[in-house]
Amino acid sequence: MSKQINSLMMRMTPEEKIGQLNLVNPGIFANTGAVVTQDIDGKIRKGQVGGLFGYYDAALVGKTQRLAVEESRLGIPLIFGLDVIHGHKTIFPIPLALSCTWDMPLIEKSARIAAMEATADGLNWVFSPMVDIARDPRWGRIAEGAGEDPYLGSKVAAAMVRGYQGDDLSRPDTVMACVKHLALYGDAEGGRDYNTTDMSRLKMHEYYLPPYKAAVEAGAGSVMSSFNEVDGVPAAGNKWLMKDLLRGLWGFNGFVVTDYTSINEMTCHGTGGLKENSARALKAGTDMDMVGECFLTTLLESLEDGSVSMDDIDAACRRILEAKERLGLFDDPYRYVDEKRAGEVLSEDSRAAARDMAARSCVLLKNDGPLLPLKKEGTIAVIGPLADDKRNMPGTWSIASDWTQCVSVLEGMKNAAGAGVKFLHAAGANFTRDPVLAERLNFSGERVLIDPRSQQEMIDEALKVARKADVVVAVVGEAQEMSGEAASRVDIGIPQEQLPLIDALSKTGKPLVLVIATGRPLTLVRECEQAQAMLLMWFGGTEAGNGVADVLFGHHNPSGRLTATFPRHVGQVPLYYNHKNTGRPYDGAKPAEKFKSRYLDVENGPLFPFGFGLGYAPFEYGPLRLDKTELQGAETLTAAIAVKNAGDCAGEETVQLYVSDPVASVTRSVKDLKGFEKVFLQPGEEKDVSFAVTTEQLMFFNGDLQRVWEPGEFVIHVGRNSGDVQSASVQWKK
Ligand code: NOJ
């Protein structure tokens, strides 16, 4: 412990120590619960506040910091946080989209720019990265993470932490990261947000915990616990999770904050009243209470009756003060308050980076013909509720975004195409006609405006436009708030209201491109039959329209690869590539066979597998080459493959390495991602891609939860996605 903190703590009363554990929210923008904090200024003066989230304006932060520094007894500075999730003012693609770039330097850069912009607005703490593994696309928050795979998810988690924190947290342009949500939040039953989770320790360790651990190892300064229970105990009060695992096993030495009022919510979970839950949360390792004021209102009494000790309070308080010290706030509480920096946001460079990321996040799902890239000639009809839409481009969790700064797809296409192309437009459909749903979708501002015309009138207008065009680009999909927090869906198709429009457009006989905005994997079987080309744009952020246009017109050869499986039908979920085998796997050989693990009405496999994505240039793979087929102990296996760009435009391929372990003491996935490499190839160019495989890639958690590798046979798979690989076996001895 630093001398400074030591001597400060000696001067603090128990009330002031408890005050440091209190995180308040003024309820302006960032309230994700029913409660907001009252009389913040008064509480700051009394030393009852340790941090605040919800302001993002250097002047306001400065003014509030002055209250703490000049008007509270000990003058302890506050930390200022915010949900900066995928960019701050310059908005980047939603995290699920960005993960589809498989590009760690790019992802790190997104966090770096976000940190620069956030600190220009007075912030020093961000509630990101969200690293929850999600296998269920009904869960709206799948949008906020890196998809279903723990290996890729861990790489993304570490890249984000590096981007936010840099190598010196006290610099005025770096922010403290907050890894969330510990733990298993992505496994909410039925995909319904905040729902319960229950899984074996083995499954946790193997598939769900690695990204949190990777973020901790990358030095994340704080961790947010999750709303859900873990092993029957709500995370906010879960000692195993925070003390044994996070601090004990993983060596985390930062602080833990709860999620929004989640100690209060323990009562609904069924673990008792506020006072006992607060004591339990503190003793379990929670340091800071988000908005709930549970610590503020109960800990003193618990201290008096012995349910918590002064040591418990001291430990939490010390961790908060240490975070402030790491941020440099004791040397200069106004380090992040520089109103002159206000102009640093939305710079040309940041927008250019956002455009590049928007293009690189797009995943080309289908391209018959090939219809794409579009030619810069003739008449293009750009139709659909998202065609000329800016309001939904930022995507979920983009608090500080200004949608008027966003570029719509139509606008982006006009920018890219030049004078040779005539554009026609019609909205063609609403997102919904249900005013109550629209109200829910508009909680963060008007995203969904209901066009009062009938569905048929809107379709007729769109058809008139389509018939005049040489090609139809229909920009369809979800509104921004159809994914994200408290935005679960059981129908994970394109919203119903738009389906008749797509049907009608497909019947015109005009070449049809579907550009799909979404925050989750969607079921697209029908659309796949109707359209010649399908481009997944997700929610691309500030520069969405320009990024999509770069892809549509071939300025950028699409290179995104899915990081979450796209099922055929919602009834298949959870559907993910790294599943276990069953005792009765179905291999497709005998369609009439009964007693196999399969459905009667839909095949087992996905519509688009994990790792999938097309480009404008075909990449040809040579045969998989292994330098050995028998290995021992610490030897290294080299798996190599030649990849050739057989097309006529330059492009990027993501070569993926998977490993399977067919015989082990516990059952293993059919395959697990263990490496990938992106190669950029000019037309006709060929490169050898090679992977070094060591026993590290063979390791897994055994029945005693020890990470081991067991000698025997391993299958090495290399290919373009999880469903299209070449495989070869090796024997690996101890
Ligand atoms: C609730 C969300 O679960 C969490 O991700 C977010 O950081 C907090 N609210 C604060 O807004």
Detailed description of the structure:
29% of the residues lie in helices and 18% in strands. With 734 residues, the protein is of the alpha/beta class. The chain folds into four domains: 157 residues, Glycoside hydrolase, family 3, N-terminal domain (TIM Barrel); 132 residues, TIM Barrel, CATH 3.20.20.300; 206 residues, Rossmann fold (3-Layer(aba) Sandwich), CATH 3.40.50.1700; 117 residues, Immunoglobulins (Immunoglobulin-like, Sandwich). It starts with a helix and ends with a strand. It binds 1-deoxynojirimycin (NOJ). 1-deoxynojirimycin binds next to loops.
Entry summary:
By secondary structure, this protein is an alpha/beta fold. The chain is 29% helix and 18% strand. Strand 24 and strand 25 form a beta hairpin.
Total DSSP E strands: 27
Number of domains: 4
Trace the largest sheet across and list its strands: 9-6-5-4-3-2-1-10
Approximately what portion of the residues adopt beta-strand conformation? 15-25%
Average pLDDT across residues? 97
**Number of discrete helical segments:** 21
Q: What class do helices, strands and sheet pairing give?
A: alpha/beta
Any ligands, ions or cofactors bound here, and which? 1-deoxynojirimycin
**Helical content (DSSP H or I, runs of 4+):** 25-40%
Roughly how many Å is the radius of gyration? 26 Å
Shape: globular
Topology:
Elements: H1 3-11, H2 14-20, E1 22-24, H3 40-45, E2 51-53, H4 58-71, E3 79-82, H5 95-99, H6 104-120, E4 125-126, H7 150-165, E5 176-182, H8 201-208, H9 210-217, E6 222-225, E7 229-230, E8 233-234, H10 239-249, E9 255-257, H11 266-269, H12 274-284, E10 289-290, H13 294-304, H14 310-326, H15 348-361, E11 363-367, E12 379-383, H16 409-417, E13 422-426, H17 435-441, H18 455-467, E14 471-477, H19 499-506, E15 512-517, H20 525-530, E16 533-536, H21 544-552, E17 619-621, E18 625-626, E19 630-632, E20 637-645, E21 651-660, E22 672-681, E23 686-693, E24 700-701, E25 707-708, E26 712-721, E27 724-733
Parallel strand pairs: 1-2, 1-10, 2-3, 3-4, 4-5, 5-6, 6-9, 12-13, 12-14, 14-15, 15-16, 19-27
Antiparallel strand pairs: 7-8, 11-16, 17-20, 18-20, 20-23, 21-22, 21-26, 24-25, 26-27
Helix pairs in contact: 2-13, 2-14, 6-7, 6-15, 7-9, 10-12, 12-13, 15-21, 16-21, 18-19
